[in-house]
Amino acid sequence: MRSPWLCALVLSALAAGCADETAILLEIDSTNVVIPTDVDGLRIRAVGLVSGRTTDRLFTPDEWPETLAIVPGDGSDREAVRITVWGRLGDTERVKRIVEAQFVPDTTTNVRIVLERDCLDVVCMGETNYCLGGDCVTVMPPTDGGMDMGPMDLGPDPPDMFVPIDMNGGGDDDLGMDPVDMGPPDMFTPPDMPDIPIDYTGLIISEYVEPSSGNSKAIEIYNGTGSALDLSDCMLELYRNGATSATPTFSTTAVIADGGTFVFCHNDLATSMPARCDSNESTSLNHNGDDAFGLRCDGTLIDSLGATTGDPGDAWTGGDVSTQDQTLRRQCPGVADADLGDTFDPSVDWIELPGDTFDGLGSRSCPGSP
Hints:
By secondary structure, this protein is mainly beta. Helix content is 3%, strand content 34%. The strands form 7 sheets. Strands 18-17-12-11-23-24 form a 6-stranded mixed beta sheet. A 4-stranded mixed beta sheet has the order 7-1-4-10. It has a 4-stranded antiparallel beta sheet with strand order 3-2-5-6, with no helix packed on it.
């Protein structure tokens, strides 16, 4: 049985020393991403496109380029591989790049990945999506520039996976033992399966501003999901007078960082306090105390304020809290209300402040329940 680590010990840029030089030589480079200011770590994940087996490692780059060899285990020397490289700053993954390559028996396949500054903190959702030139794209099958692909004969399903070799002498920050047979505990769902639905748990309406006079109105959305979130598939719905149909709706393509907010504003507030607003909804965001809101993502109601059970009169009230002429701030921790058809009592999950309170818009602090 071939021992990938024994071969790696005598590899010098994979030039000589091993009878079998089957490997993917991965060069990670950048002309404008700075070590360690922009990134201070690299995460490399390789997934076999036939077996679905995976290896995942952390490395600390000293300078560009960083060179690593991915060597197949026994029986994996014809498998196509998806390689994902993340540039990390601490525990935050700031930039991602994906390529696909293939092991070719007795051949060193050279693959170069370039990390770009204009992709820092650009979140591209999905297993095969990454940022290129500042925009999200989908990885193409093995035709990425700089690859010597060789024949596409995948052969039988390999019993073993491959392991990355750090050509620059690192490895002290590996995630664990260098595996040969990954086995069931380390199996990943094959990457060609449909994308896993996004978990919107923790995304809530966090602040509601309905002033005592004028139209300086706003609705704040808070991301408490645990990771950055793309709002492209979400919308804020306005249900006038507690009606059952929404008009209008408000949307954005913004990405909210974990713990961050997005504030929809009426034109009056966006003009007078632009620093508090992330959008200018013109005069459409003109809610009053008897108008309900729903936050819907991928067609599913995630959270709400008010109800669609009919006009409540001037406002929804309860426990000395009213939705008219007030600023309402979500209690900590906020509990989503995904039912617009139930009875709405604003005192259950909201704190009442004077209607002209704007100082909390754009941030949310929850050290404990007030």
